[in-house]
Specification:
The chain has 21 helices and 34 strands. The longest helix is centred in the last third of the chain and has 69 residues. Helix content is 34%, strand content 19%. 42% of the residues are buried. It is elongated. It folds into four domains: 186 residues, Prim-pol fold (2-Layer Sandwich), CATH 3.30.2250; 109 residues, DNA Primase, Chain A; 269 residues, 3-Layer(aba) Sandwich (Rossmann fold), CATH 3.40.50; 75 residues, no CATH class. The protein has 747 residues and is α+β, with helices and mostly antiparallel strands.
C-alpha cells in the first residue's frame, strides 16, 4: 500500500458490512457528497470482493445507491434538510400519520436521511421545500462519512442507537407517503460521453478542470430535476414545478447546460442570456452562482482546494476494528474463542475480562514474561536461514488510556517468578544499559581465601517492561544511543558487546548465554516514532510482535486462579553456567511453508518489515510448545502462532496507515497554505489587472461610444476577458463610464 493510497479503515469496513447486507455501495469523494466517477451507477455494487478493491486506496466517503437492491429492498430515501423549514415540514407530515420506525441517519448539516422499501420504482424528486426524494438514479452518503461545514468536520451518524442502515431493518413505505410521491417511469441515461474525473489537474485552468470533474445530470437531479428524455448527446430534464415538457438541456459533449426555467439561479453575466431568453450555464458559472453567491474569488479558493491530490485530503482517525490485507479484512485481535485452545490462553482472556482489558494484550505480556524462563541454550533450528533464539520483543499499541500498561502488571500476577538469575519488569536506559542488565556484583573468594567483589555476567534472563514506548523512541533517536541495534541483535540471539568501551567498562555476552524479552506500550499517534527509516532499515519493526490494547468489552468475571505449576517450566540444562544448545523440532510443514515463502520473496519488492515474519512465527510456535513442556513443535502450535502473527501484522499495518494519514494531513495543510498564498497573489494580480482595464475603458469612452461587446474585445485579451465585467463596474463606480442599452459611453 503506497503512501498515496491510504484507506479510511472505518469506511472500508462499513462498505463490506453494507455490501454483505445486500446494499449497493458507492465510493464518494472525501469530505464531499459527490460519487467518484461519472458512471458511478454502473460501479455501485454489493460484491464484497469488489468493494475491497474499490475502498483499498485513498481516503473516501461512502454512499448507497438508491433503487432496487440485491437484498430485495427497493430503497428510497427521504432527504430532509434544515433549510426551507424542511425539518418542521417533515415533522408535521409524520405527526398526521402512524409512527415511522425504520433506518434513519443524521446528516452533517443537521438534516435526516429516512430509508424506506418502496412498492414500486420511484425517481428522484421533491416532496416539498426542504424535502428531497432519492430514488432510482440517486444515492445518499452514509456514516462514517464526514463533510467540512463552516471549517468544522462533521459526521453522518445514526439518529438513535442502532438505527443505522447497517443495523436496522428498512421498513415498507407507508401508503400515505407513496401517494404523496410522483412516480414517473425510470429513465436510464446514456452517460458514456460524460468526462471522467481525474486527479492530475496540473496546468489546467480552473474552469476546464471543473468541467472535467462535473456531472450536470447528477447536479440537477440533486436539486430535484428528473431526466425525461435523451436525444444523442443531449439530456432533457424537468423540474417538478415546471409546466413545460422540460426545464433544461444538458449538452453532454460540450459540457454546458441550457436552462429554460425561471427556477434556475440568476445569470452572473449578460453574455449568459440567449436571444430566446434561455440561459447558458458552464459548470464554472453555475458553481460560482449556486455555491458562492457570485463570489469568484471564494469559488477559486475552493476549486484550488479540491484540485489538491485526493490522497492528500486529511482523514480523521477513528477507532480501528479491521485492517485491509489484499482482499481480506483482518481484525486487530483474535476472536474470543481463540483463547479456548490452551488453559494458559484462557487464563489470559479471563484476567483481561476481569479488569476490562484486551485479551490479546494480556497474552502478549504473558508470552514475553514466560519466555524469559526459557534457558538460553534452547534454539530454533536453521529453518529460515541461521539458527535463532527465543528472545521476544512485543508492542502493545492503542489510544491514550486504553490500558497498555495494565497487561504488564497483570502478567506478573498470572506468573509470579522469584529467581535470582532473572530480572523482570526492568525499565530501559541506554543501549549499553541493556547489556549491563545481565551483570551483577558478585562476591568471589580468591586462592588466598580473601573475599573480593566484582561485576560479572550473573543474570541469565531479563524482561524489560516499557510503559510508554515514546520515551524509548526518543532515546533511540538520540545520537550515540544503540537501543535498536542491541535489541535487533538480541532478537536474533547474536553476541552482545559494548561499543567504544575501555577495559573497565567493556561488557560481552556470548551466544546462547542470555535470554532477553521486552514489552512496550505506545500510543497509536506516537507509534511512527518506532517506525523511522533508520529502524526500518535494521528490520526492527518486522521483529516486533504487536497486540492491540482495545477490544470489545464483556461483563467482568472473577479473576481466575492460575497456579504456576499448571504451566511447565523447561529444565535448566548445561553445567557450570554454560548453556548447551538444544534445538526444538518443527514439522516438515513448517520447513516447506517457510521455504516456499522465501522462494516467493526472491526477486520481489517485499517490505522490509515482512522479512522476519516466518522466523517470528517459529519463535511463537516454539514458545507455545515449551509451555506444554514439549521440545517438539506441533502443527497445532504452528496454527496458534500463525493466528497471532496474522493479527499482529494487522496491527502493524494499521499503525503504518495511521502514520501515513498523519503525514498526508500535514502535507495537505502545507499544500493548503501554499494554495492560500497563491490565491492571495492571484487576487492581487486580478485587482491590479481590473484597475488597469478600468483605466483603459476610461480612455476608450472618452473618444467615442462603444457597444459592450466591442469594448470588451478592445480592452481585453482572451486570457483577461473574465475581468471585463468587474473592470466596467469599477469604471462606472469611479464616474469614468456609463452603461445604457448595451452601450458604454462617457458620463
Amino acid at each position: 500500500m503506497s503512501a498515496e493510497s491510504v484507506p479510511n479503515i472505518a469506511v472500508h469496513q462499513m462498505a463490506r458490512t453494507l455490501g454483505a447486507a445486500g446494499f449497493r455501495v458507492v465510493r464518494v469523494y472525501p469530505g464531499d457528497k459527490r460519487p467518484v466517477g461519472l458512471e458511478w451507477t454502473k460501479h455501485a455494487t454489493a460484491d464484497v470482493e469488489v468493494l475491497d478493491r474499490q475502498f483499498s486506496s485513498g481516503p473516501l466517503n461512502i454512499g448507497v445507491a438508491c433503487g432496487p437492491q440485491p437484498n430485495g429492498v427497493n430503497l428510497v430515501v427521504v432527504d430532509v434538510d434544515i433549510r426551507d423549514d424542511g425539518m418542521a415540514r417533515w415533522a408535521a407530515m409524520v405527526a398526521e400519520h402512524p409512527p415511522l420506525v425504520t433506518a434513519c441517519h443524521t446528516t452533517p448539516s443537521g438534516g435526516l436521511h429516512v430509508f424506506f422499501d418502496a412498492p414500486e420504482a420511484i425517481s428522484n424528486g421533491k416532496l416539498g421545500p426542504g424535502i428531497d426524494i432519492r430514488g432510482v438514479g440517486g444515492q445518499v452518503v452514509v456514516p462514517p462519512s464526514s463533510r467540512v461545514i463552516d471549517g468544522v468536520e462533521r459526521f453522518y451518524g445514526e439518529l438513535l442507537p442502532r438505527s443505522g442502515l447497517h443495523r436496522h431493518p428498512v421498513a415498507a413505505m407507508s401508503l400515505w407517503l407513496v401517494d404523496e410521491l410522483v412516480r414517473p417511469s425510470p429513465l436510464v441515461v446514456e452517460r458514456s460521453k460524460l468526462r471522467h474525473p481525474s486527479n492530475d489537474g496540473g496546468g489546467v485552468e480552473n474552469a476546464d478542470w471543473l468541467r472535467d470533474h462535473w456531472d450536470w445530470v447528477a447536479v440537477l437531479e440533486g436539486q430535484g430535476h428528473v431526466v425525461v428524455g435523451q436525444r444523442g448527446a443531449d439530456v432533457f430534464l424537468r423540474h417538478p414545478t415546471a409546466t413545460a415538457d422540460h426545464s433544461c438541456v444538458v449538452h453532454v459533449d460540450e459540457g454546458w447546460m441550457c436552462a429554460f426555467s425561471t427556477n434556475m439561479p440568476s445569470p452572473l453575466r449578460a453574455a449568459q442570456v440567449n436571444r430566446d431568453g434561455s440561459v447558458s450555464w458552464t459548470p464554472y458559472d453555475w458553481f460560482v452562482a449556486t455555491e458562492f453567491g457570485g463570489d469568484y474569488s471564494a469559488a477559486t479558493r475552493e476549486i484550488n482546494r479540491r484540485r489538491l491530490p485526493l490522497s492528500a485530503a486529511p482523514t480523521p482517525v477513528r477507532a480501528p476494528a479491521p485492517v485491509t490485507a489484499g482482499a481480506d479484512v483482518v481484525a486487530l485481535y483474535p476472536p474470543v474463542e481463540f483463547y479456548d485452545q490452551r488453559p494458559w490462553m484462557a487464563a489470559c482472556r479471563q484476567m483481561a475480562q476481569a479488569v476490562g482489558g484486551s485479551p490479546s494484550a494480556h497474552l502478549l505480556a504473558f508470552l514475553a514474561r514466560w519466555a524469559t524462563l526459557i534457558p538460553p541454550g534452547y534454539s530454533i533450528p536453521a529453518i529460515n536461514g541461521a539458527p535463532s533464539s527465543f528472545d521476544l520483543l512485543g508492542v502493545i499499541a492503542g489510544t491514550s488510556g486504553a490500558g497498555k500498561t495494565s497487561p504488564m502488571r497483570n502478567a506478573a500476577e498470572l506468573l509470579p517468578i522469584d529467581r535470582k538469575d532473572l530480572r523482570l519488569g526492568l525499565g530501559i536506559g541506554s543501549g549499553e544499559g541493556i547489556i549491563e542488565a545481565f551483570y551483577a556484583v558478585v562476591d568471589e573468594v580468591d586462592g588466598d581465601g580473601k573475599k573480593r567483589r566484582e561485576r560479572r555476567k550473573a543474570i541469565s534472563g531479563v524482561n524489560f517492561s516499557v510503559s510508554e514506548g515514546l520515551i524509548f523512541a526518543e532515546l533511540a533517536g538520540r545520537g550515540g544511543t544503540t537501543h535498536v541495534t542491541r535489541l535487533c541483535d538480541a532478537w536474533s540471539g547474536a553476541a552482545l558487546s559494548t561499543a567504544n568501551a575501555n577495559a573497565e567498562t567493556f561488557r560481552h555476552i556470548d551466544v546462547d548465554q542470555y535470554r532477553l524479552t521486552l514489552v512496550m506500550g505506545i500510543q497509536a499517534d506516537q507509534a511512527h516514532e518506532l517506525m523511522t527509516d533508520s529502524a526500518a532499515s535494521q528490520g526492527f519493526v518486522g521483529r516486533l510482535l504487536f497486540a492491540w490494547a482495545e477490544e470489545p468489552r464483556v461483563a467482568p468475571r472473577p479473576r481466575p486462579p492460575l497456579p504456576v505449576t499448571s504451566i511447565p517450566t523447561p529444565p535448566v540444562i548445561g553445567v557450570g553456567g554454560v548453556h548447551q544448545r538444544t534445538y526444538l523440532t518443527y514439522p516438515e510443514q513448517v520447513y516447506a511453508e517457510c521455504q516456499s515463502a522465501s522462494d516467493q520473496r526472491v526477486g520481489t519488492d517485499v517490505p522490509v518489515e515482512d522479512h522476519h515474519h516466518d522466523l517470528l512465527r517459529c519463535k511463537v510456535a516454539g514458545i507455545v510448545a515449551l509451555m506444554d513442556g514439549r521440545l517438539d513443535v506441533s502443527e497445532a502450535d504452528w496454527g496458534l502462532a500463525t493466528t497471532l502473527l496474522t493479527h499482529s501484522a494487522a496491527v502493524r499495518r494499521y499503525l503504518y496507515a495511521h502514520r501515513r494519514q498523519q503525514d498526508q494531513a500535514r502535507r495537505h495543510s502545507a499544500a493548503e497554505a501554499r494554495a492560500e498564498t497563491e490565491l492571495v497573489v492571484e487576487n492581487v494580480k486580478d485587482r491590479q489587472g481590473i484597475a488597469r482595464m478600468a483605466e483603459a475603458i476610461k480612455r476608450k469612452v472618452e473618444q467615442t461610444e462603444w457597444s459592450r461587446n466591442k469594448l470588451c474585445k478592445a480592452v481585453s485579451s482572451t486570457g483577461t476577458r473574465h475581468r471585463f465585467d468587474a473592470a466596467l463596474d469599477l469604471a462606472v463606480a469611479n464616474g469614468w463610464a456609463k452603461v445604457a442599452e448595451g452601450h458604454v459611453h462617457r458620463p
